[in-house]
Amino acid sequence: MKNIGKMLLPSVGVPFSSFSIHNKPLRTPTNYFKPSLSNSSIISNMSSSNRKLPILLFDIMDTVVRDPFYKDIPAFFGMSFNELIDCKNPTSWIEFEKGLIDEMELARNFFKDGRDFDLEGLKTCMKNGYSYIEGVEQLLIALKKNNFEMHAFTNYPIWYQLIEDKLKLSKYLSWTFCSYTHGKRKPDTEFYMEVVRHLKVDPSHCIFIDDRPKNVEAAAEVGIKGVHFKNVDLLREEFSLMGIEISTDEDQ
């Protein structure tokens, strides 16, 4: 349930048929790596000396962790996916992700008609549905062994703690950039700018991995290199093309 587009917005993402690294001209009309004119002002006085680069920024839902929204949550409510989309409130999840409302207010406004439901049961359903995307934990282990700096860069509410409780992502990366704690959501450009300011590196020294092209495109607008995630094997290939070599014996 990475963002409202997946959790509560009527416009829901669909599986993607391509996977591209967006730090160089593509074989398609879209070039996702476009230097921002404002980069010089962002990175003034920033230093990356004595710091291993690049810094890796991972979206979480459907990039690192399975999103339970498509199957588990409709089943919890005894609905089809389309029925759930039709009767939910289209704005409450966005507000929850940005930390503007708490979970009790979310429960009051989850459905358009204000019906009651088992909030704790929903949270349990979600937690049961969280699991690592196939092969991703092994990749994170290898990257961690190679001392890469890794951060979550994700749209998610305070319930990110449910993911942490079950999967212990903090063994590999920091929950540094979560919409709940920053009050901003991808693809808001200011959220990306805040990431760069916080890390104090040139944007080109960051690689952002996300399963949604629009989020990757937004990263490119501030000069962050982007990877459109489809599966872990292709991600490994793209890392290799970027000079991030991960030997297989380090994945064990």
UniProtKB/TrEMBL annotation:
Keyword Acetylation: no
Pfam assignment, any one: Hydrolase
Keywords of the record: Hydrolase
Membrane-traversing stretches: none
MF terms in GO: hydrolase activity
InterPro entries tied to this protein: HAD-like_sf, HAD-SF_hydro_IA, HAD_sf
PANTHER family according to UniProt: ALPHA-D-GLUCOSE 1-PHOSPHATE PHOSPHATASE (PTHR43611), FLAVIN MONONUCLEOTIDE HYDROLASE 1, CHLOROPLATIC (PTHR43611:SF3)
Official protein name in the record: Flavin mononucleotide hydrolase 1, chloroplatic
Record gene name: LOC101503272
